[in-house]
Amino acid sequence: MNLIIVESPTKAKTLSRFLGSSYGVEATMGHIKDLPKSKLGVDVDKNFAPDYQPMVGKEEAIKNIETKSKKAGKIYIATDPDREGEAIANHVKEIVGNGKTKRIVFHEITKEAVEEAIAHPRGIDHHLVDAQIARRVLDRLVGYKLSPILWKKVRRGLSAGRVQTVAVRLIVEREREIEKFKAQEYWEIYCDVKKDQQFRVQLINKKVDNKKTADKVVHNLKKAKYVVANIKRSEVKKNPYPPFTTSTMSQTASRLFGWSARRTMSTAQKLYERGLITYHRTDSVNIAVSAVAKTREYIKAQFGDRYLPDAPRFYKTTSKSAQEAHEAIRPTKPDVSQPKIKKTKWSADMVKLYSLIWKRFVACQMATSIFDRTTIDVKAGDYLLRASGQILKFDGWKKLYAVKMEADDVILPEVAVGVTLQLVKVDPQQKFTQPPAKFNEASLIKTLEELGVGRPSTYAPIISTIQTRQYVEKSEGKFTPTNIGIAVADFLVKNFESVFEYDFTAEMENDLDRVADGDKKWQGVIGGFYKPFEKKLKSVEKNAKRVKIETEKLNKPCPKCGKESKGELVVRVGRFGKFVSCSRFPDCDYTDRYEERIGMRCPDCKKGHVIIKKTGKWKKFFGCSRYPDCKWASWKDPRVKKEKTAS
DNA sequence: CAGTGAGCGAGCTTCCGCTTGACTT
């Protein structure tokens, strides 16, 4: 019996089905060797020699591969066709250790692709493995050298990294833009005009930015003569969106369902494990040819020829850092619009997400939608006003994948050039420019992807990390930096600017490509980075002052020392969340609980307020503000009655 | 489930990326 080794156990099961009994298939469950967690694991004096060790927690997977390999005939290592996959392949080869292994790759899980791969085995691509080593060593050096500086200069337990610090920096800088933003006044001036039917035109050739000008314009418009000056009709075509990647799926589920990246990814995982969708951690929009063919059949049968474009649509990945190891996220059976899913706690989510993925995918192979767009220009003295109308002529792919928040049809009446219109009303509207929006999960993931920072497997974890570290807080879905986040980002950007430049990762990727192509040695790339970095580390460690973290003031005197020493109450963040203390600490040691009220009285004593409390870093519980007089406490939110709390 | 901050300094914290499973943040 031959043996095939892949990363995902679900993939292993699927392959077994294709290949029958002459092949055994085993999974590594991701990486099996890595740098040790408890120490640097990189010998900076010996050309950065990395100390890759079997990973804690992967003993079973490793053992499994060892035993199965001993009995196997041919051994095909079919880990993912990308940098990390090649590294895993190399580690598998080291563990099997008998020289019998061959490396194969495929980009889609179809019988043809796998058979083709088996027919063309190769060896390990050591240049690509080297690129992974460089990536891994760089991240380790950045993370494990900078974090201890934060412990020393800011606060214990903090962390820094090529990815997480950039995420925090984005949020901090956005907050600054919002703070310094000054709203600008501007006016939009509309006129309702009519011939047989009334329609609305907007002033377009004069900028109005205050009431005085607006009044003058309105005054003139009231007296003006309105003549249709120009009519433009055009056909506007809209092509469907590409199928989902991890990033676009997370963004869309966030926008449409309000889901967190975590919720979307864990729902997708369940769909993947049930064989309903292709792999959900991907940066590619490629689609298996066989899936396209099936989808075209389905579209033809279900919607008719009009909805089927002449040729299949194939999409190109635009993201420059994409590795394209997998297909796009799509239903494995494009003709199944609603899969049968057993009723469980999660089935509603699964059905919802499946339906979204299915619609997006089938729509991506459907005909272009067509709008008739009409623009009517109206002259009123020196003023030019315009109305734009749009009518859906043929829905095409929009029949299936309707995008919320898109304007409805605006139908304009038939008028001719030169016709005089009657003014019904002038409607001046005062507006103000809006500050940039705070980041939410969707926009943060989008921006990180554009910068090439983070990978499909890490978008959701990044969002958790920056919150766990208390660098940012999420409220009503939007991220705000904490004082710690601001202090850490400022400290790191000031002292290690080059590492946290927004294009640092993109430049790193360029270097890694050179390593993968065999044009550069990985040690040279790391050496080039580390020399100046090490110098900087030493000088910052020696010279940088300890960072003071801004505290939130309560504007109340300290009950213990407020009278004689003018201590004031401030909010500090400790190991167990926020608490109130005296600004004069350590001279005054007054502390009190920080109460985060949820707006309801204690269900037990009816006198205190229910407040949110924390135990350890994570666990929240609800308690009474009168503790210890009232000992009421609950894990469950007392505002929620019976209803399931979907996270 | 009732702690916390500074500094003293035992021993400890920390990265990104690949997987899933255990568990609810």
Automatic annotation (TrEMBL):
GO terms for cellular component: chromosome. PROSITE patterns: TOPO_IA_1, TOPO_IA_2, TOPRIM. Pfam families: Topoisom_bac, Toprim, Zn_ribbon_Top1. The active site is at Y279. The keyword Disulfide bond does not apply. InterPro entries: Topo_IA, Topo_IA_2, Topo_IA_AS, Topo_IA_cen, Topo_IA_cen_sub1, Topo_IA_cen_sub2, Topo_IA_cen_sub3, Topo_IA_core_domain. Residues 1-109 form the Toprim domain. GO terms for molecular function: DNA binding; DNA topoisomerase type I (single strand cut, ATP-independent) activity; zinc ion binding. Residues 125-537 form the Topo IA-type catalytic domain. This is DNA topoisomerase 1. It comes from Candidatus Woesebacteria bacterium RIFCSPLOWO2_01_FULL_44_14. The lineage of its organism: Bacteria, Candidatus Woeseibacteriota.
